[in-house]
């Protein structure tokens, strides 16, 4: 995920100022219109994140045997929850060049829930499943489990997929567990550059990267600073969220290092003019450290984050925003 600890530009959930705009935008709708909270399979969610971040996965280094095991685990979970396949099947192999590890191929894990009304328009939900492996200089041979970064997002894909299989959306929703984010966003770049669905029919990318741990109960939705038409949907989601949902970290006005626009897989979509909303927290002390283990996740915050992402997807599905360039 992100290369530096960050302090974000805030956009409060109760009335907010998009970065650089100077205009106060009221939040709607009122809380009384909130839909019931999404039912999250919290037991399954915690089981999946713990499995992906287990010591036996040895940090899921891009191209490693353990990353392939994580791929296979997610593919099996996509099968279990009933996602349809996309294109060539459940796993999409792609070539990799110019990495210091000598990796020549990698895989995305992809599934979809077909829309009931507009099946040829797509919401693409992404999260990377690779991490940085073992033996980084900070702690010798320690395993960098990457529970928050980004087993939390990968496991959330399964939970969100289960919800939408049970109650199908109007638009087709594609779930993609992408590989190689930590080595240059290889998986998301492949998804966008060699799409299995028409790229101009992708309405939005919803990306999750680090959504499982924040002591202040704060989750960010970056993207509306680049695509202002998305702001009302995020604001409405914030009113009803279990977590404190903020906007920001998505324009140069945030300052050096604080603009997350290019710092996770949503960047691949943004480069092609596809709107994105990136859900993530600001960095914690265990970011890219051996301490990023599943026992340090905050289950109440994590489940609240997944419910918040689910609520945004439902709002977008019910009131889609026309695709526009930033």
Concise description?
This protein has 326 residues and is an alpha/beta fold.
Question: Topology, please?
Answer:
Layout: H1 42-52, H2 65-81, E1 91-95, E2 105-113, E3 118-128, H3 147-166, E4 171-178, H4 186-193, E5 202-208, E6 218-222, H5 231-240, E7 244-247, H6 266-270, E8 276-280, H7 299-318
Parallel strand pairs: 3-4, 3-5, 5-8, 6-7
Antiparallel strand pairs: 1-2, 2-4, 6-8
Helix pairs in contact: 1-3, 2-3, 3-7, 5-7
What features would you describe in this structure?
By secondary structure, the protein is of the alpha/beta class. It has one domain: Zn peptidases (Aminopeptidase). The protein contains seven helices and eight strands. It has helices spanning 42-52, 65-81, 147-166, 186-193, 231-240, 266-270, 299-318; strands at 91-95, 105-113, 118-128, 171-178, 202-208, 218-222, 244-247, 276-280. An eight-stranded mixed sheet has the order 1-2-4-3-5-8-6-7, with helices on both faces. Helix 2 runs parallel beside helix 3 (147-166). It is globular, with a radius of gyration of 18 Å. The two termini are 23 Å apart. Mean pLDDT is 88; it is low at 3-32.
The CATH architecture assignment turns out to be 3-Layer(aba) Sandwich
> Structural class, please?
alpha/beta
Strand content: 15-25%
**Low-pLDDT sequence parts:** 3-32
CATH topology: Aminopeptidase
What is the count of β-strands? 8
Strand order of the largest sheet: 1-2-4-3-5-8-6-7
Amino-to-carboxy terminus distance: 23 Å
Mean pLDDT: 88
Order of helices and strands: HHEEEHEHEEHEHEH
Q: What percent of residues adopt helix (DSSP H or I)?
A: 25-40%
In DSSP terms, counting alpha (H) and pi (I) runs of 4 or more, how many helices? 7
CATH class: Alpha Beta
Q: Label the overall shape.
A: globular
**Name given to the CATH homologous superfamily:** Zn peptidases
